[in-house]
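Hey, can you fold this one?
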Amino acid sequence: MDPLASVNPYVSLKEGSRLGKVYERLPERSARFLRYKGVEPPAESSRGLLVFEFEVHNVADIKAGYSALSYTWGHPIRDDFKDDLSFEVVCNGQRMPIGIDLNDALQYVYVESDIAPPLFWVDALCINQSDLDERAKQVTLMTSIYSNAANVIVWLGMDDADAHEAHALLSEYSPALKNIISDLISENPMGLIGAGMINLYDDPKIHEKYHLTPRPMEAWKAVVRFLSRRWFARIWVVQEIIFAYDSHQIYCGPLRFDWSDLDRFVSLVFGAQWHGLNFHGVERETSKIARIFTFHREIRMSATEYMNDDPQFSLLSPEGKLYDFAQSYLLSSAFLEATDPRDRVFALSAFINAYGAKLGLRPIWLRADYTLQTTEVMLRTAQVLLWKTRSLDMLSYVSDLSYRAESNLPSWMPHFHVPGAVASVESLLDLHQGRKYHAGSLSTAVQTFSNVYLHMDSPGQELETQGYLLDTVEQVVLFDSGFISTMEICLNLPPKYVNGESPVEALWRTLIAGRTDTAFPAPPETANDFALFVRAGLIGISMEALEARNKDALLRLITVLGEMEEHCPHPSIPTVAEFNGILSAALGDLDGCLKVLTELHASSTYRTMMSPTHWGQKGKALFRTRKGFLGLSPHSTQIGDEVWLLKGARLFHVLRKAESGSDERILLGEGYVHGFMEGEALRLDGMNYANVTIK
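Sure. Predicted structure:
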């Protein structure tokens, strides 16, 4: 019995059916294919069933002699749809249950279109889903099946109003986008074209020059909803598309789409201005779409050359590069969907093997084995990656404790098997140029590996490593507690931070995790951006207090500004007199004030200040330690938690004692400590590593 048969409706149903000799044992390197025979005469109460016969062929011998189907198990749009396999086809004389989306796809291909292939490979029918050994072997053949197919027919589901709106918009705008790119290259041959340069939304000059019809916001939302169909987010789709990149045909009912057009559109148009548009109701979808297409693009690039902006990557051995690649794509694919969570590991094996072949290596990677429990698959994979990379980057993708799903996995283990759990973390390592952090190394040019030992035979699967306890947390500020609380933390800092900065400068540099979108560390002029950010926050607080007639809130604000003026003055923080002038001007021109605030909230300056603290399901918390260090930490951080520098780690980690009197800790997540992200802790007097065990 498949341990996760409940997630695969075909398994439990086929286990209880009598399929006779429909599924005979397959020879090595062979697969079943469907040959269409026609339509069974319909009964009085139903339409006729499609009839097929199975043919078995060696995949290499039948190259380009068949087509393969890429579709969605379950409903193509709805996540909450329970597919009861209420449709049927006939295979080798036996009625076979199929789901709604597969039924629609087969009906379109063989009855409603002229694209019917002579032989068709469809996973749900061509693989005996109740035979665990066959499922595993067919997974290893997946690369060959898709790369050897004459073409891959992609079925997005039946067409609807959103699909037609998206098709109309893309049909008009995609050719124009090619011309725009060509013109930009002609004007500046050495320039780079990236997100933000092309505004097809509401730029009248572009509309006029390229004869484009302006579209209302609802049309753009329709494109978002169309690109949010579940097929785009399936993890197996990556393999199905990459290994048949030049031979796939994308259908949504009778509508035809082109992947390269979709990819170009998302990367250069949608990626440009999501934050500047009012996508009420589909904000999460827009972010997910950008992630999906970026992942496809990056893993397609890996077929030619794996690109990594990590300055230490070039220092790695070929084996180090291989497993860095494996870990990077395992983590970045965690937001994709998998009917069976074990496929989050199995589906990437083709890319890891392909990159290994480029480096002349045969990787150690877990082969598809559906007799293994999900937790065992995840732990074995983590063991290989920690052993081979000797890096603790994986620990940065552990979800916040308050959001972590219940599991018997250890606290240091990211929950790859939970949809979106890793993706919701939004690690500081993923920030632009964030991989330049090297808290546990003296420089990016020095390789410092972690000493890691996994107690895999222990019930707790503890991770043992070496670390330095920098300090303990004494104050925690959650950002939903308001901007005044954030400013107040400066009053508890010494007049000069550990690196000589003023308390306010240490604060704003901490809030942005030390970097901007273009520079690390952030240049001094970023203080001007912080001043705008502060001004907007103070005006917003004042407006709310005045509207609610909350005198206490206004009094607290004035009091904090006065104390900061006395103890830690800084140009970014207005004095009480300056604030009174700002507030009077705002009240005198409310419309103008609201316009300025709206523009500021849509600007990159505002996002730079907010992104590290608001990324992920819970965002980051601001903390102060007993010795006066400032940093960002997981949302669940409490007073008394410990800030550790684990040997070789790029970031700090926040740990909590597992229980009173115990030497074991649990991992809360990654942390940023201002002034210590470039190896400074290694130069502290008395700095010595000690063994630490994370359960």
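The mean pLDDT is 87. Let me know if you want another pass with a different chain boundary.
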